[in-house]
Amino acid sequence: MGEQKTPSEVADLIVRFIENRSFYPLEWNDFIEYRHPDPAVEQVRKMCHDLDPLVNCPRAQDQNALKELRSIVERLKQASMKTGV
Predict the structure, then answer these.
(1) N or C, where is the chain less crowded by C-beta within 10 Å?
(2) Interhelix angle 39-55/7-18, nearest 10 degrees
């Protein structure tokens, strides 16, 4: 099971994935494959899971899917600023 993450930590994880600098090789997979107890983070996890085949592939990443991931990051950062988490 994946470790519990705050929205801010999830935003950082997504950025690391996009920039190909994950903390360890399967960090992205661990995040998208395991349910999260926080409903807001779980919703994001599901969105990332759905985008995964378009961005975690041997061919060129889908630019629209990357744009959506960046949009998710922005929403997470804005929510974190409001809540302080």
Answers:
(1) N
(2) 10
Q: How confident is the model at residue 81 (pLDDT cuts 50, 70, 90)?
A: confident
Q: Find the mean pLDDT for residues 18-26.
A: 95
Separation between Cα atoms, residue 42 and residue 35, nearest integer Å: 6
Mean pLDDT of 58-68: 96
Nearest to 23 by CA among 13, 32, 10: 13
Residues found in the chain? 85
Closest to 78 in 3D by CA, of 44, 48, 32: 44
